[in-house]
Each structure stands twice: as structure tokens, then as C-alpha cells.
């Protein structure tokens, strides 16, 4: 029931967006002169209209760090010691935000690097070679800092032997998406070839502007920690992110899923203009491909069908679609995220082993009781899946404070934390209350 209500929020967003888009197209038909104007919903266009700089190299230069600031300081060029000090601060004092000047500078440096690095809309990453080489692929984290810190604790921080690929939906719902992004991007700046973030459907302005109760929350997070200028810098950064990543030429990683159109090649995805908001209509081939990258879900029967539970224009794709796409592109596996598996595991193996769903946020929204997981590729291209139930952030903070050092504590070998009956009952009571609230809202909207 929770999954259904959760998807209902996204469905309502897509239905409203599709209606607005249809009306806009009608108005443009009556006013041809306006049809040639740029996409006014792109983050760059909105930033220019709002007086926010689009010159990444100067981001943060007009901001000043106040004398009473209690957080970490960042100096350029960035060093590993500096990154570890910031990471230690976030681990031990997550309630004291990194100053907005430093956040703006990190975003500007990351945008500059990724602009030069990304020649098209698909990124190519290699699993680090050598006996210790590995690539950690994370699914949705949705602002749940405890899960991200746990993954770093268990698998190590990014370096020349350890790569990280975040498969979208870092933003919204949880309270600490900005901290996850700050950590990830600092390591991206240090090790450009070892870190990447795919775009998810929640790396999107309209989703982020909604409240967390309605599926968003990232704007509110940025407003409480920084300001609207930094929020728009994040939006410009989101539009740079690739729509998919190919791992060592053999594995296709995408947030949502595969495509409603037959014969799609990775080369087609490479040519998509991603520097815009997610389209809300799918009549144009490019719009449909971009939309499916961010929103599609799998199904167990062949073919493509409409996914009414997701909202307007969403589709489900079958095992034949996965097999054909991988065959046409000489690949062996597709990894996607986008939803909590119905089994409440952190991963789900489907389509005859050709498709894996990975979801990293455990006990999603503090209510579902699901495990989180990551997929880890080794240098020989074998892979393992590791599940977890992250401890509460307060527990991790206390552990890092006790450690008294910026380095990463040893990997925990203790058994997976299970959710106690009392915790499950509390989660169920809260979940039932939330569902009742959402149902009341739907009834009022219907009336």
C-alpha cells in the first residue's frame, strides 16, 4: 500500500505536468512567434532570468564566510586531507551545514570537470584494475545520509582502486541529499575517472520544488541550509548529469529503465539533449527516450505496457525488451533503480538474470522496513550484491565521534541489523497514518 501511495504522488505530478504541457503546445500553435523561444524550463534559462550566474568558474566568489561559522573550511586546489576533514565533519556534526560559499565552489568545480568530460549523454566508466579494484553502484539514496555513510564505511571511500557510481535519485524525501552530493562531488574532483552520478527522475526542478510530503523536499532542504541561489546551482548541475553509464563496455546502468521503442542503441541515448528538464510528453522520439531513462519500470511479461500507477506517459518493459536491448548493444546486464523491490530486499534479479534493480535507502522514509543494497563489480567483472539495514544516523554520529579521527573506521562484520517487532509496529502505525492523510487529500481533490 505504501509503494502504491508513494507512486501516486509521482503520478499526480506527471499528470499535472502533462496537462500543462498540452496547454502550452496549444498556446504555441496559436502564437507561432513564441514557439521558437528556448526551453524556458531549463535550469540555465531560469537561472539567467533569476539573476543566478551560469559561469561555473565564478560560483561562490561573491559569497563571504562569516567569522562565527563553525563548519569545515575548503581550500583550493583540493587535497585528500581537506576532503577527509569535511567528510569527518559531516559524519560527526551533520546538523552544522557546510558553508554555502564552499558548496557553490564545489558545484562549480564539479560542473567544469563534468562539462569537459561528458561529450554526450552517456558516460563510460571502467572498473579499476588490479586485485583490489572495484566499482560500487548505489541505487536511490533520497537524502538518507545514514545509508550513504554506511556504504562508505563498508566499502571504503573513493580512490584509485575504488570507484563509485550513484544511479540517480540522490535528491528529495530525506533531509541530507546535499551532504551526500557534497561528499560525492569532492571525491569526483579528486578522482574524476572514479566517480559519477547518473540523473534520476528526482534530479528535476519541478520534483524538487514540491514538499517532502508530496514527493519532493530538496528545495526546502537547500532553503533551510543555504539559499535559493545554491538551489539553482544544484539544478544546473543536475542537467549536466548523464542519463546512463556504461561500465567496462558490458553493463548498462540507468535510473529508470529501457525503452518503448524497438531497436534503441546506446548511440541513440548518447545523442539526446539532456540539458533541460525531463520532458512531460513522449510524442518526439528523443523525449520518449529521455523520459524512459528516468521513469520506466520492468514487468514480468513480454512487450511494453502503460504503467498507470506511475502516471501519464510511463511504461513498463518486459524481459524480451531487455534481452533485445542488451543483444543489440553487445552487453550482458542492465542495472536500474527507481523503486523499492516488492520483496523489501535491497535488490531484485529479473528478466532471466539480465536485469537488476538496486535500491540503497534502507527503511525508506523511515517506514517501509526494506533493506538497502549496493552492487559491487570487481576487476574481473564478476559482481556481488551487499545488503544492509543502516543504523540510525544518531548511532553512526556517536560512533564517529568516539573514533576521534577523520579516517574511516573498520568495516563492520556484524550481522545485518533486523527491524524489531516494536520498530515495525511503530513504522506501520506511522505508515497507516500517512496513508490515511494521503487518502483524505485525494478525496478532497476529487470532490
Explain how this protein is built.
There is one protein chain. The chain is 40% helix and 13% strand. It is of the alpha/beta class and 447 residues long. Helix 3 runs antiparallel to helix 6 and helix 4 packs parallel to helix 9. The protein is globular. 45% of the residues are buried.
Outline:
The chain is an alpha/beta fold. It has helices spanning 2-30, 43-49, 80-92, 100-117, 145-155, 177-190, 205-209, 218-225, 228-238, 266-270, 285-295, 319-328, 393-403, 421-446; strands at 122-125, 134-138, 162-167, 195-198, 244-247, 251-254, 297-298, 304-306, 315-317, 333-336, 347-350, 355-358, 372-378, 383-388.
Poorly predicted regions: 22-38, 414-421
Average pLDDT confidence is: 88
Q: Give the fraction of residues assigned to helices.
A: 40-55%
Question: Class by helix and strand content?
Answer: alpha/beta
Helix and strand string, N-terminal first? HHHHEEHEHEHHHEEHHEEEHEEEEEHH
Task: List the main descriptive attributes of the protein structure presented here.
447 residues, alpha/beta, six-stranded mixed beta sheet, 13% strand, globular
Walk me through the topology.
Blueprint: H1 2-30, H2 43-49, H3 80-92, H4 100-117, E1 122-125, E2 134-138, H5 145-155, E3 162-167, H6 177-190, E4 195-198, H7 205-209, H8 218-225, H9 228-238, E5 244-247, E6 251-254, H10 266-270, H11 285-295, E7 297-298, E8 304-306, E9 315-317, H12 319-328, E10 333-336, E11 347-350, E12 355-358, E13 372-378, E14 383-388, H13 393-403, H14 421-446
Parallel strand pairs: 1-5, 2-3, 3-4, 6-10, 7-9, 10-12
Antiparallel strand pairs: 2-13, 5-6, 8-9, 11-12, 13-14
Helix pairs in contact: 2-9, 3-6, 4-6, 4-9
